[in-house]
Amino acid sequence: xxxxxxxxxxxxxxxxxxxxxxxxxxxxxxxxxxxxxxxxxxxxxxxxxxxxxxxxxxxxxxxxxxxxxxxxxxxxxxxxxxxxxxxxxxxxxxxxxxxxxxxxxxxxxxxxxxxxxxxxxxxxxxxxxxxxxxxxxxxxxxxxxxxxxxxxxxxxxxxxxxxxxxxxxxxxxxxxxxxxxxxxxxxxxxxxxxxxxxxxxxxxxxxxxxxxxxxxxxxxxxxxxxxxxxxxxxxxxxxxxxxxxxxxxxxxxxxxxxxxxxxxxxxxxxxxxxxxxxxxxxxxxxxxxxxxxxxxxxxxxxxxxxxxxxxxxxxxxxxxxxxxxxxxxxxxxxxxxxxxxxxxxxxxxxxxxxxxxxxx
Amino acid sequence: xxxxxxxxxxxxxxxxxxxxxxxxxxxxxxxxxxxxxxxxxxxxxxxxxxxxxxxxxxxxxxxxxxxxxxxxxxxxxxxxxxxxxxxxxxxxxxxxxxxxxxxxxxxxxxxxxxxxxxxxxxxxxxxxxxxxxxxxxxxxxxxxxxxxxxxxxxxxxxxxxxxxxxxxxxxxxxxxxxxxxxxxxxxxxxxxxxxxxxxxxxxxxxxxxxxxxxxxxxxxxxxxxxxxxxxxxxxxxxxxxxxxxxx
Lengths: 360, 247
Hints:
The structure holds two protein chains of two kinds. Chain A is mainly α. Chain A has helices spanning 2-30, 35-58, 66-82, 87-92, 103-132, 137-156, 176-201, 205-215, 217-222, 227-253, 258-262, 268-279, 285-304, 309-323, 327-335, 346-359; strands at 167-168, 255-256. Chain A has a domain at 31-278: ABC transporter involved in vitamin B12 uptake, BtuC (Orthogonal Bundle), CATH 1.10.3470. Helix content of chain A is 75%, strand content 1%. In chain A, helix 13 crosses helix 15 (327-335). In chain B, strand 7, helix 6 and strand 8 form a beta-alpha-beta unit. In chain B, helix 3 crosses helix 4 (120-133), helix 3 runs parallel beside helix 5 and helix 4 packs across helix 5 (148-161). In chain B, the strands form two sheets. Chain B has a six-stranded mixed β-sheet, sandwiched between helices. A four-stranded antiparallel β-sheet of chain B has the order 2-1-4-5, with helices on one face. Chain B has two domains: 1-80 and 164-247, 3-Layer(aba) Sandwich (Rossmann fold), CATH 3.40.50; 92-162, no CATH class. The interface between A and B is large, with 35 and 41 residues.
């Protein structure tokens, strides 16, 4: 019976993943007018997935994860420009210098930029992590929010990277359509890689341990678990993928500046929390579902309720937080635990034991 | 007989309240040592001091000759000094096996092992320990659905899989159905004899502690009141007065 349930869930999950994969590959050709919107959807999914590592699985509600998105964007920009030109002069000219990046310079710079963003953000996570992981609960949330806001302000005052007036990114060496496809697939692949990586790390010791930190950190410490190490690694994973998404997003937009694009704490920074909560935090599929619904809803309200779009989003957040805290998948898991591999019946537990012994 | 834990001159104040005043005691290795005392006499405070849960005001605590009074909780736990809680603490949302898996020791864990799955031997070992405490049939149920007594047994099993050298048990029989108590005493004794784990037990149930412990310390009002064999303690006038409230 348990095996049966597991098998059915397995098949459903494989079909679901195949459908999503097919949609991801075909979408820009089926709906060419929406390529940018669907690319944004993949970025949103990546946001929700990475936020959930800490917020959902580990119980540390970070409001500052957007820090790594912005940091990745800036690290990538500096590397991309820096391999060809002096960064300070480039930014001081406010885009007046027109440098032509050759095709090779562009792609090599971009690749190096993504790598540097990923590595750099992981290092940031380790450094900031050792500073803020002493904080618990709401203090951690506010502490991380402070770090993200401070980062935006600091970058805004740093002339080397253009200060408040930002950086115009190297121009893609190609036409509009291949450019759209190129960035679409980068977004799609980075979200896919995040999902596959998380599915892998959630299958073993890592997930059990970070769930233990969420449910009772004092007990975990009393059992000798390397809690600090796990916390830093968990944030590092989030930072790694957020850094990559920042590098891609900055190039896709073409112009980056600190407050609206790189460190949008009150929009994207909060959206990543809301998406995870909506879909069901602490599950693998919840953030994916939540990000998809949220993105659809956001675009629909922006089109049909223009002027009231923030009110509509605010209402959604309030309803979600007050009446529906466990989110869609969390609610489903409470209602049908057997479909999520949770054994509720003692007889089943005993039967499973007997069947195992018989098999041996 | 060597001493596994040596507490000497340890004091701990909470504001103006003196929870522990100049406490000294030794826990000999391989034995079962008891700690008794009326409510509020500072037993749990002393446990918390030993496991590094809070800093102590003065004194010294050594574990196998190593000073541990400045170390943090997880470091001390990784040395092999483990505690269970008075208010049983298990992971209610996870099933019993996951609870066991979390408790696998991380003493010499290389960084990359955190991404690995649990090896089959570990799963088997967890199952055999659950069998030992009598929870094998329930191993796939969420731990929160177990009765309080069973949760205590699970917490004990979690401690066993961690392979401690010494286990500090804070009231292991509190709130347990009397028929389960005998089974628990038997298992505690077997943990001591078969697994070679030194035990240091806070207990209110006099029948249990007199049966179990080789020697007993008695605290009252944060001070060390008496120390001796169970029958000496049982007949000590000061201990009886402390419990019956004569001052």
